[in-house]
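Lab meeting prep.
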Amino acid sequence: MRRLLPLLCLVAALAGCGESGDGGEATLWVTRDRGAEVLVTASVPAGVTAMQALRGEADVDTSFGGRFVKSIEGVHGDAGAKRDWFYFVNGVEADRGAAEYRLRPGDVLWWDYRSWSGDDMRQPVVVGAFPEPFLHGYDGRVRPVAVRFEAESMRGTALGLAHLIGARSVEPLSVAVGPQANALMIMEETPTFFAELRSSDGTAGSPVVFGVSFEDAKRLLKDPELAQHRYEGLAE
């Protein structure tokens, strides 16, 4: 996809990362069909694994010694139909088994049952946990955040969204974004709200870029939950 990479002629690095300890709470969502149907929402304790959090709130059937999810709430994976369960943490597709990922305070753990055929095979990052992963990152690494906007008339909205996602750098689109930062780009012509990795290596937790049209940016600022449970776009 890489729709925004040409805009990110990245020069200066924005330093900083952090790590959260155990304690506190995380959020669990279970959905199907790219968030179209919500099966479970719950608060879960931080410090447990993604598998433990799921087992504590849903009816789960596993295989391979409890390391692979076969079904949740009676919805079974189907290899023939190429449909199965996948999970995200803070909107980032996980890079390890659920028994290996330990949740941190503020994390959003999202299990979704969907197709994995063709272009649906990989979904490295989605918008549905917004304002994540800007706030809590992935696997304890919180990256610096930058907001860029295309026209001066967008500055007020850009500042509002910057406050929401913890961005310290808010500048016109012409100002480069550091290569280690997560970025939110507000542009007139962007047709929807979408997310992608900033590099082609596909590594979970690597820098991301979210693109949003100015009109959708204004809607998102008024109600961030419009993006909830969505791979891209906002609710009507």
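Slide two material, second protein:
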Amino acid sequence: MLSKTRQIVLTALVLAALTIGAGSGCKKAQSDPFPASGAVAGWQKTDGPRTFAAKDLWQYIDGDAEHFIQAGVVSTSTADYTYQRQLEAAVDIHTMSSPDGARKILETGLTRDAKTIQLGDECVQYAQSISFRKGNTIVRIVAYESTPDTPQALLALAHGVESKL
């Protein structure tokens, strides 16, 4: 039979092991949401990712950072891509504090030429950009040029990002 002290120590050790095991099992592993070069047909990553905390967001999107901060942005990551060496695009991934904040950002500035696409929880596409929300994340992909392939190419890249979120 174990002494009272040994029982307490053994119980404490078992509880500590269970707590550590439960804590590590519940954490979602952080993964890179940006597709690698070649992971999406025709797309190559050319730069990034770069990440900005909310307090530093003005360094990346000066002039509109306050709107994101008011909506609850936690951080923003960005990477640059090129499609078949003809089209350049930036992928911005904004992690918000809540899905409502992500929805607010997505709905800001919607115009009549926005095309609703089925991607993530909600998505809109324009001739040179695509934006979608998935949970508390908002993704914006903006092309710097317009070609006949731009809308389909952006959609393919968006699917590549969405599959990694």
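Talking points for slide two:
Residues 34-162 form a domain with the Protein Transport Mog1p; Chain A fold (CATH 3.40.1000.70).
The first strand starts at residue 43 and ends at 53.
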